[in-house]
């Protein structure tokens, strides 16, 4: 039987109390919301926090709303809620694509968007999708609130830019004219990605004015393929350009061999899925279902 090490349990009833508890217990405290990542690690004793701060009562962090020109997603929003949101589906199909292939309904009903990002798992789907969208994260700590660009948020595997006693409270994405898509290969339904790629295209007068490419499970620095984005910017949204962008992305990432496949296989998938995601995004830009 897998049993976690002993820990203190606190249930916060407000954001301010959650931060006060994080400050009181220090670096050995962990926040728990959905618990689908942290609790299995605790059972295996890969994580042994001295205190768990339960934030499930913080309803103010569980909202999806349009705030000015931004979509604002509270950190406590469940995966199933993001998937079902009409405004998310209308403006950000890349998020809908990604949520459809995250785990299973049990996990999606309980796991949270903020928890997935803060876990910074190298194989996490939403990290690549939000990185392609260039989201901004809002964190709150004892010193107040600050914003962090998502491409500065991920410092490495399981490591983020959150300071001690800081809590991710919201993810913001500007609502602008763009098209997007997410493509994933997994060994079986609901599994972690062997490789996945997300693409965001802004197109004006037949020219790509901005591009975002997110990659997961292939060691892409901060989950993005910046050289491929640079190549696309200023070019035409056509098959030849998408194939070249895929080739660049494949060379840019740093996959490692494991039970999901050798390096060459993953690098090939990174290129192919990048190309397919770009094609799908371009098709949506023309009003076609991808």
Strand content: 25-35%
Distance between the termini: 45 Å
Average predicted confidence as pLDDT: 95
Spatial shape: globular
The ordered H/E elements are EHEHEEEHHHHHHEEHEEEEEEHHH
Radius of gyration over C-alpha positions, nearest whole angstrom: 19 Å
Q: Class by helix and strand content?
A: alpha+beta
Widest sheet: strand ordering: 4-5-10-6-7
| Regions with little confidence, pLDDT below 50 for 5+ residues | none
Q: Can you give the helix content as a percent range?
A: 25-40%
Number of DSSP helical runs:
12
- Number of strand segments: 13
Mind summarizing the main beta sheet?
A: 5 strands, antiparallel
Features:
290 residues, five-stranded antiparallel β-sheet, alpha+beta, three-stranded parallel β-sheet
Written overview of the protein:
The chain has 290 residues and is α+β, with helices and mostly antiparallel strands. It has helices at 15-25, 38-43, 79-84, 86-91, 93-100, 105-110, 113-119, 125-132, 150-153, 226-232, 239-252, 263-285; strands at 8-11, 29-32, 51-54, 64-67, 70-74, 136-141, 144-149, 154-156, 159-160, 167-174, 179-186, 193-204, 207-216. Strands 4-5-10-6-7 form a five-stranded antiparallel beta sheet. Helix 5 (93-100) packs antiparallel against helix 8 (125-132), helix 10 runs antiparallel to helix 11 (239-252) and helix 11 packs antiparallel against helix 12 (263-285). The longest helix is centred in the C-terminal third of the chain and has 23 residues, at 263-285. The radius of gyration is 19 Å and the shape is globular. The termini are far apart. The model has no long low-confidence stretch (mean pLDDT 95).
């Amino acid at each position: 039987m897998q049993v976690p090490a002993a820990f203190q349990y606190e249930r916060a009833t407000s954001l301010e109390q959650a931060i006060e508890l994080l400050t009181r217990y220090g670096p050995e405290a962990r926040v728990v919301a959905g618990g689908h990542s942290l609790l299995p690690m605790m059972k295996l004793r890969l994580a042994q926090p001295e205190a768990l701060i339960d934030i499930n009562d913080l309803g103010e962090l569980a909202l999806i709303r349009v705030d000015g020109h931004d979509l604002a997603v509270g950190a406590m929003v469940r995966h199933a809620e993001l998937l079902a949101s009409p405004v998310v589906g209308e403006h950000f199909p890349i998020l809908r694509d990604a949520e459809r292939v995250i785990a299973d309904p049990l996990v999606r009903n309980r796991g949270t968007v903020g928890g997935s990002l803060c876990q910074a798992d190298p194989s996490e789907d939403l990290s690549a999708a939000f990185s392609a969208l260039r989201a901004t994260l809002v964190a709150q700590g004892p010193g107040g609130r600050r914003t962090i660009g998502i491409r500065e948020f991920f410092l490495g595997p399981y490591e983020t830019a959150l300071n001690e006693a800081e809590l991710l409270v919201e993810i913001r994405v500007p609502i602008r004219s763009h098209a997007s898509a997410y493509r994933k290969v997994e060994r079986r339904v609901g599994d972690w990605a062997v490789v996945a790629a997300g693409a965001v295209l802004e197109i004006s007068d037949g020219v790509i004015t901005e591009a975002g490419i997110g990659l997961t499970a292939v060691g892409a620095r901060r989950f993005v393929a910046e050289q491929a984005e640079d190549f696309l910017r200023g070019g035409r949204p056509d098959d030849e350009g998408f194939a070249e962008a895929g080739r660049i992305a494949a060379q840019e990432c740093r996959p490692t061999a494991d039970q999901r496949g050798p390096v060459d296989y993953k690098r090939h998938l990174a290129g192919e899925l990048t190309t397919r995601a770009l094609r799908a995004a371009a098709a949506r830009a023309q009003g076609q279902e991808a």
